[in-house]
Amino acid sequence: MVNFVKRDKNDIFSIPFLKTIFKNRFFIKAVQIIVLALFVYGIYYGFENPTKENIFTKNLFWGLFWSLFMVVSLVSFGRIFCGICPHGFLGKYITKYGLKLEMPKFLKNRYIGITILVVGWWGIYYTFPGALKIPYATAIMFSVLTLVAFVFYFLYKDMSYCKYICPIGNLTKAYQKVSFTKLGTYSDSCSSCRTFECTSACSYNLKPFTFEKKNSMDDCTLCMDCSSACESVNFKLIAPTSSLYNKNKIENSDIWVYLLIFASITLSMNFHHALGRSAISDSFIWSKTANYIQEITGISGLDFVGMFAFIYSIIFVVVIAFFGMYMASLFLKQKFSTTFYTLGYAYAPLFIIAGLGHLLHSFFTHTYADILNGFIQGFNLDFETVSNLASRKDSWLMIFEFIPYIAMLIAFVILYKRLKLFIASKARKIGAFIFASSLILAYLSISIYKVYVFKTYGAKKTSHNHSTMQHKTNQGAK
Known about the structure:
The chain is mainly α.
C-alpha cells in the first residue's frame, strides 16, 4: 500500500477543490445519497402524479440526468455518472452480500445492453413519441430496471450487470474515451507494491495499475474507491480524445455504440426533427415510406415517419460505414475487421461532441427552465416559475450550430492519428483516409444540405416550437 506520492501538476488530486469533489469519500458518498434520494423520489412522484401535469419526474430523468448531466460529464470528466448512479451505488452492497456467481457466458454479451438502449428506448421513442416520457411510464420503466439490476447484482459477482446488461453502461464506457481525464496509477510507486489495495477495493475486479499500459480504463466507472485505498492512484487531465491517438485495448462493442447511437440520435433527429420541419418534409424517403405503410395498413396511433426515419438512419449509417471501411481495408491490405475496429474510433465525436450543440441550444431555450420549474413543482417550493434564458429566435444561439463541425474536425484528426497504427505507403494511407472518412463526410453533407433546404424552401408553417411546450410547462408548474 502506498501512503504518499508526489503528484504531477496535471493530476486532479493535486488541486484541493477538485480533490474534494473526486477523491473525498465523504463528499462522494453524500452526492451518491442525494442522487439516490432524487431517483427514488422521482419514481414515487411519478406514481403519485401519473399525468402529464407532473413535470418533475419527466424533467428529472429526461432533462437533468439525461441528457444534460450525462452528455456534459462524458465529454469533460468522463464516466462520473456511473460513479454516482443509484443502481451502482446500491449494487455494491447487494453484490457484497449476494451469491457471487459467475455470470453465464451467454449473458456476458455487451450487445445486450446496446440492443436494449437502441431498440427498447430509441425505437420506441420514435415510434410512440413521448410515450416513455409520461410520468407514470417513466416511473414504471425505472422501477423495472431497478428490480432487474438488483437481481443481477445479487446473483452475479464483479458488478456484471453494469458491464453487460445496463443500457447506459456500454454507452458511458465507450464515450469516456472522448473526455479530457484518465484514471491510472504512478508506476514508480506500483513497482514495489505487493498488496494491490487498488484492485481489492474495486467492486468491478479491475486493476488500475494496468490502465496506463493498456491505454484503457476497462469498465472503470470512476467511483474512486481505489483512490481511497491507495495514494498511488491518480486522475489526470489529458488532451480531449488523445487516448484514441495511440494503440489501445480495442473493444468491438465501442464501435457499434458509436455507430448506433449516432444513427439513433444525431442522424435520426436530423432526418425527423430537423428536415421534418422543412417545407419539403413529405418528399423524403422516410416520409414517403411512412405514408405508404400507413395507407396499406390503416394503423393509427404510431409515428410512422419517426419510425422510418430511425430505421433508415441505422441502415444509412451501417452501409456507409461498412463500405468506407471495406474500401479502406483494401488500400491498407488489412482484414476488414481489423480496419473497421481500429479506425472506427474516429466515429466517437460524431454524437457525443456534436450533440453538445443541440444540448446547449436546448439548455438556453427550454431545458434550464424545464428543470427548475420541475423542481419547484416536485418540492412545492414557494418560487415564481422560471423563464427561458433565451428565445429560439435569438441570433447568438447560432454559435452552437458550429459545434457539430468541430466534432467532424476532431473525427478527422482521430482518423489521421489511428491510420499511423498501420504499416502502409503514404499513397495507400491517403486512399484509406478518404474512404474511411465516408461516414464523417456523409454527416458533413447532410449538415450542409439541411442549411440549403431551409434557406431554399423554408420551414413548414405548422412546425413545432419549444415556446408552446414551455408555456405548457410553466402552466403545469403553477
